[in-house]
Design brief:
Blueprint (H helix, E strand, L loop, with lengths): L1 H23 L6 H5 L5 E3 L4 H7 L6 H9 L16 E9 L2 E11 L6 E13 L2 E13 L8 E2 L5
Antiparallel strand pairs: 1-5, 2-3, 3-4, 4-5, 5-6
Amino acid sequence: MNRYLLIFLLTIFFPVTSVAQSRSTPKPTNRSAVLNPQEFQFLSINGRAVAAATKPCNLSLIECGNKRIGLYGYSGFGGPDSNNPRTETFIFKRKNQTTGIYLLTRRVNEDDSVAGERVRLSFIRKGNRWHFLEARRQFQCARGQNTIDWTKKLCP
């Protein structure tokens, strides 16, 4: 009898678990959403971080982004040992220029006005090295008129 009860319970709860897992897996970001830097708020750094940021990087785009993201106070959020944030890279080729975009997306649980944040690092490819250009960010608001779209404006 216990065996049948266990099978019955697994039959009931297994689909619920599968649905919950599929919902928690975020969809990849659309390439067009990261193309225009003007849709993101500019992030600045100063001091020694400027020299570290502008040093050419001969690693992969994801590795270069993981190294630069810490300069903006996002240390530990990106990279392979993270579980909440997601990092993505995008390559845009136009004539003789290759631009690389590193995007860090994270959910924010400790703030009642911000539900998520995205940080966009842009690079230019010269030879076999990535040269850092700038950092920008967006927010997804948890309250207010728009809680779906990403915005460069601060959340209410």
